[in-house]
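Dear colleagues,

As part of the handover before I leave the project, I'm documenting each prediction I ran so the next person doesn't have to rerun anything. This entry is a single chain, and its sequence is reproduced below.
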Amino acid sequence: MPQLLLNILEGFWGVLGEMAPYLLLGFALAGGLSVLISARTVERHLGGRGIWPVVKAAAFGIPLPLCSCGVIPVGASLRRHGASRGATTSFLIATPQDGVDSVFVTLSLLGGTFAVFRPLVALVSGVLGGSAVAAVTGNDAEGGRQPETCREACCEPGGGGKLRRALAYGFGTLPQDIGRALLIGLVVAALISAIVPDSYFADYLGGGVLAMLVMMVLGIPVYVCATASVPVAAMMIVKGVSPGAALVFLMTGPATNAAAIATIWKVMGRRTALVYLATVAVTAVAAGLTLDYIFQVRGTSPSLDKPPWMLPEAVKWVCAVALLAVLAAGAVRARIGGHAHARKDEHEHGRERKTAAKLRVSGMTKEPRKREPMTERTDVVTFKGSPLTLLGEDVAVGSPAPEFAALAGDLSEVKLSSCRGKTAVLSFVPSLDTPVCDAQTRRFNEEAAGLGEDVVILTISMDLPFAQGRWCGAAGVERVVTLSDHRDASASTAMGVLIKELRLAARAVFVVDAQGVVRYKQIVGEVTDEPDYAAALEAVRELTTS
């Protein structure tokens, strides 16, 4: 037992020492890319028809250090900002397979051939998958495009200078994201090294397509980071797996997992999800067979294909210790951040739980201190003739619009203040799945084309962001920004249109000028009636033409 434990520790430290110098360099380069290549730059190049946006989507994505779960919200943002379905699929396939940090780790453990072959295969598979989706579903050039509102996160990514932001991402955010998976990968590699006999996989799996299919079955459903999977693949090769079979694991593991597939199925549709999965599977096997052939023709193996230079052992030790320190710091930050979120949630929801407990044992507990009651207004709106109660202060025309925050389709937070400098139309509806709300949103979407670039129309409802996204896709609504107020009713309460009895927004239209002042207000008296579009649009035109 002591000898086995010693072998595991030796395997762990040996792999860590080999990859540490290259991974630290990869972190530094990834941090630089995060500053030099902004999300807006990527989004600007991925619209339009044809093969070129699909190729650019894969090329942009390959150097980014994102795995199959982390790439989903980025892909959703690209789609929301106008990327075609084909370009988005290309990005989703190519990006998680590799990254600048993963390239350097591959070079250190699997050699130059592997390090060059992986990004090439990622590019080819991304282009093939994106092209197939465009052919099957139609390359909708404008995708789910909606007018851009400047959000704090996209206007200027982080504070400080570029060097500080690059270091913060490369040695802070990135290690925090992949640190746990990387350590697990190192431990698994050490266990394989110490426990699995040499040539074990070769004896039981052999080479060829069968071994690759087994690696595919292992890789597709589970979450494996592109960087963390490399030491596992390297140790599999040592124990007898062919380089091609290991490549299949390196492709399918990072590029797919059950959660990512389910999300793509829901957001982009069944056909896109099936094409996505089929592309990864077919290209993985084809690439595996090609790589085995390359090594066979060259008469070499990954173990003989390492870089020709040798780093001193002292450098490896120092880098290994430094890498562990970086990963440990990321783990501490993640833990502290988790506790902070938990404390915040506890603070936010504590009063509600106390109120519920008081209702269950009324008369048996001491009365807690009550919060300030929210303003209630009656005789303002009705639902099919029945009066309803509105919560929140009555916002007067000529007063500053109160700040609020709601969620966009990619789950990013959008504040009203982010619209400063533009005229904002706030169109509140109870639910997009009802006929009147459907008609109201479609009407403003049609009118938006004639209002100019200095006007942004926000449709705000209690629908979940995913439901809003599906509705917009089905309705072809592209010029209106939909925001979900479901999280905390911040927008509905701030503007005084939250219906107490239903926890829905009343039907209302506000026009806020570029300085954030309310210039027009219309709360529809009967919730089932449509608003006075002409009056609202006239208020907008007065602001934009004056």
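Residues 141-159, 355-369 have pLDDT under 50 and may be disordered. The radius of gyration is 28 Å.

All the best with the project,
I.
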